[in-house]
Amino acid sequence: MNIRTNILLRVYAAFGVIVLFAFAVIAKMVHVQVVEGDKYRAMADSLSTKYVEVEAARGNIYSADGSLLATSVPEYEIRMDLLAGGIEDDKVFYEKVDSLAYRLAAHFKDKPGFKYARLLRDAREERQRYFLIKRNVSYQDLKALKKFPIFNLGRYKGGMIAVQQNKRIFPFRDLAARTIGYYNANAGAAVGLEGAYGDYINGETGKRLVQRIAGGVWMPINEDAEIAPKDGADIISTIDINMQDLAQSALKKQLVKSEADFGCVLVMEVETGKIKAIANYTRDGEELEYKEKFNYAIAQSAEPGSTFKLASYMIAMEDGKFDLNDRIDTEGGKYKVYRHTIKDSHEGGYGVITMKQAFEVSSNVAIVKQIYNHYKDEPEEFTSKLHDLKLGEKMGLQIPGEGSPLIKTPESKSWSGLTLPQMAYGYELKMTPVEILALYNAVANNGKMISPMFVQEIRRLGSTVEQFKPRVVNDKICSDATLEKLKVMLEGVVIDGTGKALNNPLYKIAGKTGTAQVADGSKGYKGKRQYQASFCGYFPAEKPKYSMIVVVQNPTKGSYYAADVAGPIFREVADMVYAGDIQMYSDMKAPKLVGNTRLPKVKDGHKQSAQKVYSAFGIKPYFASATENDIDTNNGITYKEVKMNRGVVPDVVGMGLRDALYVLGNSGLKPVVKGSGEVITQSLAVGTPIMKGTKILIELQ
């Protein structure tokens, strides 16, 4: 083969390989375009644009009186498109960028203006279209930013991008914090009302189309979401904001005084089971700082101690084992069962006393002797009745975290010869404070036991979605005859027994103290002595409206007895609730009004407030025929309407200081005050034109 032929063969071979490769490329292109076209087009779209979820605004949580306990407010992430239409021209951008930078610095005060200017210039040179300026910007700040240089050109020309997010806030801070709770979907945590009603509160997420830009950042294509989110529903709780404040304040004060580990207070409306206040505080560290870290009121399942004696008395009296007037020997305050000695707190015991007196002084010996002697041969007769009362079951609360009660039976593995006598006075069993409260509330509620309520209604856009009614756990816990005896016993504790310190001459309290020794971990009762002080009861005793339980764990300073530790908390809260609830003044009669009788003096001021007070006392609030502050039994009374006209002197004579300062301040005047009481004179005549900041002397007497 000559050289020419050899060369041609090589050329043809190379050319053939190239042609084959070209056909292979074309075939692959056709395959990709036609056969796999849809797949790769979808992949391309997903890499450049995609839909992301837009968080819905969570629903509000309200107190019973309409106060906001939890709400969502919008927060914004402010970004900037440095290549927006209005600033494409370098001249426009560089003329105004310094002004924008110094306005941002003056507004946020987080960095000097020259740093803002340098960052914006650098971002411009890098052609960034989604440059982060500031996170966590409020709506008021956003409104101000829209007026800044460049940004005031508008959304598309000025390049400002505001990405809305929702922030959860609690207007009353730590008030009922653990009951309000939180919901963390990522951690799977559901606490309190936020967690229990998350399906309602969370709403429905929306969809927004975003585009990937340089640097792997996803930027919204449109200002508004393509699918708008649906805001969550509102929860109307049973909490009374004033009672809640009282409960937390009284509890924290006593915990600090006693240097206790933790404590809780629970206030419930007798007839409905609505929880009006629930306070929980835990000692945080060595210092006397207390925080809401755990909901002891519903979750702390522990031995209740003497507050459980109510159930023991109820069952035994219902079975006819003894009556209140039956006498019993407390045997010097000591009673031996097997090798265990049960003692009374009073050294030497109480001698021979009635069972009523034994309950009032909280004799352990008396109730143990009665329960043990009457039920030792058939203990299931006693324990079965405890279970019939539903004391061994969870109550099915509306919020998560309810502790599990424990009421032993003879079939329990840990049952022993000591279990029955121990149970008689609140040991070898476990109950949560809310379960003990439900039992006492049932006595106040004429025998009907109802499950505590934390939520009364769910609303969406003002319309009711769901309404909750009291749920009956036990229609009748005992006979009416036994019920009356229980009420007499509970009142006697406060009148003549361990709860004397709670006695109030204005109204009656009924309840029971409980001082229980707490086991010291694995050491049991042989370790360091720790006590739990509690008081559970209701008020006013003659016509109960509220029931309450107070529990304080391990008071280390001063007394550890319930009357000294839990009692003052109960008394303080009950006193303040009673003072603020006119409906509980059962002996208050409507005033008998005679023509032209002079009303009690009421200062001028807020018209609606005066009308509300008069209405509460049965006085007709508005008719035009009577003279001011005089009662006309046929037509009612009139009120002076306070009118504020900015720029002229208002009439504040007859007002109290607070209202006078409010009116004068809103009229543009600067008041100078002399005296106290009610305004009797003012230095400027009513209706006189004034300049802002003009001084006015008001004299009070």
TrEMBL record:
Matching SMART domains: PASTA
Subcellular localization(s) per the UniProt record: Membrane
GO annotation terms (biological process): cell wall organization
Record field: transmembrane: 7-27
Keyword Transmembrane helix (UniProt): yes
Main location: membrane
Protein name: Transpeptidase family protein
Source organism: Pedobacter aquae
